[in-house]
Amino acid sequence: MKARKRRRTGTRVPAFIWALFVVLAAAILWRVVAGSGSHHPTPRADITAATIVDAARYASAPEVERAYRMARDIPNVLDGLHCYCECARNFGHRSLLTCFESDHGAGCDICLQEAIIASQMTAQGATLDQIRDRIDAMFAG
Length: 141
Hints:
Blueprint: H1 15-35, H2 62-73, H3 75-78, H4 87-91, H5 96-99, H6 109-123, H7 128-139
Helix pairs in contact: 2-6, 6-7
């Protein structure tokens, strides 16, 4: 008669499950710690609209043209806003302003929406922190 292997009565968690748990816990901890500071850049004091693409270039796309015109009016505000299309990570952009220094903003609904919101709120007298809060509420989740 063959001897049977004894099965353990307790269950062991495989090593890859533990590794996954550790990585997940580290990511959550990093997000909590990193999230406690602002992800929005500090606007530069000497920033101007000189590098923003001329809105007339987008005359055939009225909404895009409008956003580029708005961007020219508030470069200091846009320079203090994080862009939620994640172009900072993917393309090295510094702020939402950077999106309007090229054609990038023209092809991105998130960039366009953020710029329009920022312009409208600025016209209503909102502070940069209030604009940041609104944009975070709309796009962060």
